[in-house]
Amino acid sequence: MALWGGRFSQAADQRFKHFNDSLRFDYRLAEQDIIGSIAWSKALVTVNVLSYDEQKKLEKALNELRISVNQDPEQILRSDAEDIHSWVEQQLIEKVGDLGKKLHTGRSRNDQSTTDLKLWCKKEIYHLIESVDHLRKSLVITAEQHQQAIMPGYTHLQRAQPITFAHWCLAYYEMLTRDKDRLQDTLKRLDISPLGSGALAGTAYPMDREELAQWLGFAKATNNSLDSVSDRDHVLELLNTASISMIHLSRFAEDLIIFNSGEANFVELSDRVTSGSSLMPQKKNPDALELIRGKVGRVVGALTGLMVTLKGLPLAYNKDMQEDKEHLFDAIDTWHECLDMACLVLEDIKINYEVCLEAAKQGYSNATELADYLVAKGIPFREAHHIVGEAVVGAIAKQKALEELSLDELKSFSHVIEDDVYTILSLDSCLAKRCAKGGVSPQQVRIAIAAAKQQLSL
Ligand code: ARG
Questions:
Q1: Interior CA angle at 137 toward 181 and 285, to 5°?
Q2: Is the dihedral of CA 267, 270, 273, 278 positive or negative?
Q3: Spatial separation of the C-alpha atoms in residues 188 and 437, rounded to whole Å
Q4: Best mutation site among 4, 322, 329 for ligand 1, i.e. most ligand atoms within 8 A of its Cβ?
Q5: Is the CB of 33 within 6 Å of ligand 1?
Q6: Which of 163, 200, 215, 274 has the most CB atoms at less than 10 Å from its CB?
Q7: Distance CA 365, CA 376 (A)
């Protein structure tokens, strides 16, 4: 029986009912709906709608329901209730009879659904912060293990300057740290309770909404009832945070897919996160990483989808807004899974030190060093850049690296070049010179690892 039976003489068409009902996805809000209902029952005592004893009975029944739902959430799906709010109310009435019918006094599903979702977002944000931290830890531990792994760094996917695998890991650590900041920031703005806003104009019962907010663990109560029931900014913000983080994860995945390719062979992924081909026996495919890279589409799609749904909606609540939940649940589940998968990939990744080193030696990635060397000898940088360009062309013609050219050969490009150039051209020197904050020098990488470990209490 629908909640609004009195006004209607015909039952809903089954196809419409299926189209309209949200229970099959909002059943995930059962716990939040029950928590919200307990707080609401307490507020109803303060405005003399419920007696103290009645409230205790309701609270007891709701707590029993909460335990049963936690044990078997799927039981909810066996009901034909329209949504989780109707389901909880039905269950309550079954348990305590007519008393249960009093609970909805002064409350609307409009403020209930947004309250439930905010409570759910808060809980999820704490879990997500844990998952993000887990990956941040994995990145720092991996960085610490591979400080000596010299490899080429790229721009335009062309070998540019040598870096270390540790420095690469720490780049992703920084991104994930910003993702965590964004989660904390999102939490600040969403931690405001809409409960007691009624359908749109506020509840007609003069309760203390600040106290109600506190009972629910929110920092305060919202200011405007129209805004309270229409606001989904927090869902957009969370989806935006998820999207940015998924973009980070997809770049992480793409880098590793390239590093793992037969062409690069810098890393080897474990059998635990790869799969074979049904036809080609030699294949070991980086599926975990490809799926991380691919799933960014769903998450960004969820953000875009909800933005479009909300655009141009008149105040206040409209049924369109029920579309917030499927997007959000799917995006958050996906983000969680991808964070976990990224940790799993790092767990037993192998770095092929020799291959990485060989690649770093090729590609003239020490050309900038030679230019800086010439600058130190008094040649203006623009001119030095040109000279080194010619030296690279000459070296390519001889199929040699810059450091493999003889001193005479090097001198033919500039007479200021002396024997000391060879130390400058070594990879170790290339790395060591980048010792300003944030650079790839072993000393700076050590400092960065120590700072990250301190942040993570490792
Ligand atoms: N299932 C609805 C949602 O998720 C709950 C609010 C329904 N309110 C209404 N006036 N029909 O948005």
A1: 105
A2: positive
A3: 31
A4: 322
A5: no
A6: 163
A7: 19
pLDDT in tens, 53-73: 999 999 999 999 999 999 999
- H or E segment and range at residue 119: helix 109-145
The predicted-structure confidence for 128-173, as pLDDT tens digits, reads as follows: 999 999 999 999 999 999 999 999 999 999 999 999 999 999 999 9
Q: What is the pLDDT of residues 291-304, one digit of tens each?
A: 999 999 999 999 99
- 429 catalytic, yes or no? no
Is residue 327 annotated as part of the catalytic site, yes or no?
Answer: no
Dihedral sign computed on CA atoms, order 205, 206, 209, 214: negative
Residue with tokens 């059962």: 30
Closest ligand 1 atom to Cα of 199: 10
Mean pLDDT across 313-336: 97
Residue 399, both tokens: 């199929």
Q: Is 363 left (phi over 0), alpha (psi -120 to 50) or beta?
A: left
SS3 417: coil
SS (H, E, C) 238-300: HHHHHHHHHHHHHHHHHHHHHHHCCCCCCEECCHHHCECCCCCCCCCECHHHHHHHHHHHHHH
Is residue 113 in contact with ligand 1, taking CB distance under 6 Å? Answer: yes
Is the pTM higher than 0.85? yes
**Residue that has been written with the tokens 């009093």 in this structure:** 102
Ligand 1 closest atom vs CA 322: 12
**Residue 376, token pair as written in the block:** 């130190």
Cβ of 114 below 6 Å from ligand 1: no
Atom of ligand 1 nearest to the CA of 321: 12
C-beta 83 within 6 A of ligand 1: yes
Q: Active site residue: 156, 406, 415, 457, which one?
A: 156
Residue 396 to residue 413: CA distance in whole angstroms: 14
